[in-house]
Amino acid sequence: MSGDGGEDRVLTVPNLLSLARLACIPLFVWLLFGRDDRAAAAYLLAALGATDWVDGYIARRFGQVSTLGKVLDPTADRLLLLVGVLGIAIDGSVPLVVAVLTLFREGVVAITALVLAALGARRIDVTWFGKAGTFGLLFAFPLFLVSHAGVGWHDEALVAAWICVVPGLALSYVAAAGYVPMAKRALRAGRVGSTA
User: Fold this and answer.
1) Which domain holds residue 27?
2) Number of domains observed in the structure of the chain
3) Which of 33, 83, 85, 155 is the most buried (most CB within 10 A)?
4) How many Å apart are CA 194 and CA 196, to the nearest integer?
């Protein structure tokens, strides 16, 4: 617990933004497949991706970092990215290799986190590389979707998508590699804590 007890708070603006991201995931799926509106689905996904940066900024700037937020924010990121990538891959608007590389990395990280939690490891905070990679990907996939939406700037959207996805994937894999030693330390710390 922090000195002022602030990290135990639940009702914070960043947590509400994370919950809003989670609540909008079904809306994204409906827009993409129910309404067959690629542009609207892409704009929604991009807006939700932007809130990921906004809630982190608010949490740090206004002292609203919370224990719940440290779990809720990356969970919302993972679910949003997984559903977004799967949906856009099924739609056929993104190259298959990009979707597979993204889903493989996300799947490995998610499974590893569950295994570590089951083994009693301490929680691992998301790194800057992980956040930056996720941020890039959360903009790349909507741009791939826009590039197939028949809007006036679809060619520019495709170029922008590649500009975002290459560093996004690179940073996400760098972050995944960096989590390996962190996971070992978290597991050791968890075991020491349980023994004590």
Assistant:
1) 6-191
2) 1
3) 85
4) 5
Within 8 A by CB and 6+ apart from 71, the residues are: 123
Q: What pLDDT is stored for residue 124 in this prediction?
A: 78
pLDDT of amino acid 7: 65
Examine residue 179 and state whether it is found in any structural domain, yes or no. Answer: yes
Q: Provide the sign of the torsion angle of the four alpha carbons 18, 21, 26, 27, taken in this order.
A: positive
Rounded to whole angstroms, the Cα distance separating 151 from 34 reads 19
Residue 1: inside a domain, yes or no? no
Does 150 reside within a domain?
Answer: yes
What secondary structure, in 3-state letters, does 52-78 show?
A: HHHHHHHHHHCCCCCHHHHHHHHHHHH
In a domain, 162, yes or no: yes
3 has a pLDDT exceeding 70: no
Burial of 130 per CB tally in 10 Å (0-12, 13-18, 19+): buried
Q: The CATH number of the domain where 61 resides is what?
A: 1.20.120
The pLDDT of residue 196: 53
